[in-house]
Each structure stands twice: as C-alpha cells, then as structure tokens.
Amino acid sequence: VEDLLSPDSCVRRSDDGRLVEGLREASLETMVILGDSDRVMAVLGEHAGKVGRILERRPERGRALVQLGGDSQGLLLPYDSICHYLGRSEDH
C-alpha cells in the first residue's frame, strides 16, 4: 500500500510497478513484513496515525506487540490494525 485515500480506500503498487487506486479493504490481505524494518503505523483504532516499532510478533494469534511513538509500554495490536511503515521517522 502506497497511500490511504480515505479510511476505506487506498493506492497500491503492484509487483510490476503499476499504481492501482481506489482499492477497498476487503480486496487486501494483511501482511506484516518480516525483515530488517520493523517500523509500523497504526491504521485503525484510537492509535491510528501513530508510528512505532514491532517488539514481538505473534503470528499464531495474528497480533504484534508494538511500541508506538515515545510510549515505553507495548500494545498488543491485531495485524489488521497496523501496516509496514517506510516514511520518515520524527527523530530524523
């Protein structure tokens, strides 16, 4: 997902590089990238828009323990509530 157009519509870049606009949530599958970057953004719920990092993944439950912003405590959030974040961090 490249961008959110509205709370229920987004722009996605396909594997061949094309941009597809106006996709609805029902047509997407939730994935939390495993790799070097563990930065995520909360996209649903009271924490929507906050950026943080994954402390622990719990794939068997479809959840991740996430530390958002400057909070020292982690929150257990469903994968559907977070997305991989590639934007700038506030401390850079």
TrEMBL record:
Compartments, as annotated in UniProt: Nucleus
Gene: Gpkow
InterPro entries, per database record: Spp2-like
UniProt record, GO biological process: mRNA splicing, via spliceosome
Cellular component, GO annotation: spliceosomal complex
Annotated source species: Grantiella picta
Function, as annotated: RNA-binding protein involved in pre-mRNA splicing.
Keyword Nucleotide-binding among record annotations: no
Name of the protein in question: G-patch domain and KOW motifs-containing protein
Main localisation: nucleus
Protein family: Belongs to the MOS2 family.
Source species, domain of life: Eukaryota
Protein keywords: mRNA processing, mRNA splicing, Nucleus
Keyword Nucleus: yes
Lineage: Eukaryota, Metazoa, Chordata, Craniata, Vertebrata
